[in-house]
Design goal:
This protein has one domain: 4'-phosphopantetheinyl transferase domain (Ribosomal Protein L22, Chain A), CATH 3.90.470.20. Helix content is 41%, strand content 30%. Helix 3 (51-58) runs antiparallel to helix 4. A hairpin with a 3-residue loop joins strand 5 and strand 6. The protein is α+β, with helices and mostly antiparallel strands. It contains five helices and six strands, in the order βαβαααββαββ. The relative contact order is 0.28. The longest helix is centred in the N-terminal third of the chain and has 19 residues, at 30-48. The strands form two sheets. The protein has a three-stranded antiparallel beta sheet with strand order 1-4-3. The protein has a three-stranded antiparallel beta sheet with strand order 2-6-5. Transfers the 4'-phosphopantetheine moiety from coenzyme A to a Ser of acyl-carrier-protein. Its cofactor is Mg(2+). Pfam families: ACPS.
């Protein structure tokens, strides 16, 4: 059975006492992701992104910018978990979605959900930013007190 942390818990911005258990940040050059998309296309997309992420990014006018922001987000969350992409944590285990307000939300699956649960993570706060040249993300893992 696949482990999953509910997006209702993980990305909730509800204010309640919490302890920070991990923080991560990442910056990505949009041109680097654009080159990977041009060179490896569908293979790169399906190796790194979920079907939902691909559908969203492909629907955007400047898709490379949105892919880059999600790539940075996955890196930031993996760093915050303290594992990077090791210990059973894969790219598709960290899924970046848009919440109802348009704010990014994170759903953890598989190895990422397992590592997060072991660390007591109950929420992931994520911030994304991008320009035409650079995309960045910061992730904060919280455990309710």
């Amino acid at each position: 059975m696949e482990s999953e942390i509910s997006p209702d818990l993980v990305s909730s911005n509800v204010r309640r006492p919490a302890l920070a258990v991990g923080v991560g940040i990442d910056l990505v050059e949009v041109d680097r992701i654009h080159s990977l998309l041009e060179k490896n296309g569908e293979r790169f997309k399906h190796r790194v992104f979920t079907a939902g992420e691909i559908e969203y990014c492909d629907s955007c006018a400047e898709s490379a910018m949105h892919y880059a922001a999600r790539f940075a987000a996955k890196e930031a969350v993996a760093k915050a978990l303290g594992t990077g992409f090791a210990e059973g944590v894969g790219w598709a285990d960290i899924e970046v979605m848009r919440g109802g307000s348009g704010a990014p939300t994170v759903v953890l699956h598989g190895g990422a959900a397992r590592v997060a649960a072991q660390a007591g993570v109950t929420r992931v706060l994520l911030s994304l930013t991008h320009t035409r040249t650079t995309a960045g993300a910061s992730a904060l893992l919280l455990s309710d007190i």
